[in-house]
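Ticket #4471: structure output looks truncated?

Reporter: J.K.
Steps to reproduce: submitted the chain below (305 residues) through the standard prediction queue, then opened the result file.
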Amino acid sequence: MTARARAAFRCPRNVAERVWKDRRVHSAVVPSETVPFVTRRPVVLAVFLLPLALAIVLFTIETGPVFLLCLAAVLPAAAVTTFVARWIAPRGARSRGSSLLALAWGAGAAVLLATGIGAWSAEQAMYVDDQGILREAIPTMWVLTPVVEEVGKGLGALLILLLARRIGLRGVLFGAMVGALVGVGFAAVEDASAIAADIAANDLGSGIATWIVRTFTFPTHAALTIWTGAALGLALDARRAWSRPLLALAGLLVAIAAHGAINYGNVAGATDQASFFVALGTAFGWIVVSTVLAVTLRLVLTRRA
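Returned output as attached by the reporter:
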């Protein structure tokens, strides 16, 4: 084929980009930029994968090899939640690279941030009153923990969304998928750690009971961070610069408030058993609400496209 013939079949770069940018699709991939950014950014892989490896090593040292077995035990729930989370984004936006990075951040960096900063902030919030009783100036369970965990997960979602924009992946649906997948990674390590700790402190039967409960509530973190991710995806595409931080903050506050409400359920009942069911019911309710809204948003936006 001659050079003139090849030129006739070649779409100018500016035209291709203009066509794709003008499409009102909430996740589009520019044809000229389909090379996954993870293959061109070894530093990105190191930022996401090194904390993941460190988290697994630290939790394995803390609870022993049983942690790895518990991690394998939660994988079925993680796989199902991952499938649902990826369905939220349109088919062309289900980037494997961004999905893996989201899972890695949730299971690695987000867990390390929550563990380290959470322990430090909880210690700073403690004080001894006039009667010599140790008290909390700020409730750790339903105030500090939700803030630290949701901010840590949200940072990863923001970083991935910024990286993914380089290959044309953007929008509220893509952000929702990324946020949910960060929550999946976080929940996998958190649940495995809780099961392993229960086995070490009690017995195998107690660990199995914890595994059953954690399996049913596994999507909770995904149902929380999906709000942060969706808000970030919406904010990054907002035309008015002043509205971007407001949209992002609104999504983060929703996630923090819902997380705090779920955790508060653990102490809201008159008895430990009552508190357990209050927390369980709150978690299930939030999972249902987030799922229904995400599915509705996905159907509405994809039909418009």
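Triage note (M.O.): checked the attachment and the full token line is present. Confidence is low (pLDDT under 50) at residues 1-35.
Status: closed, working as intended.
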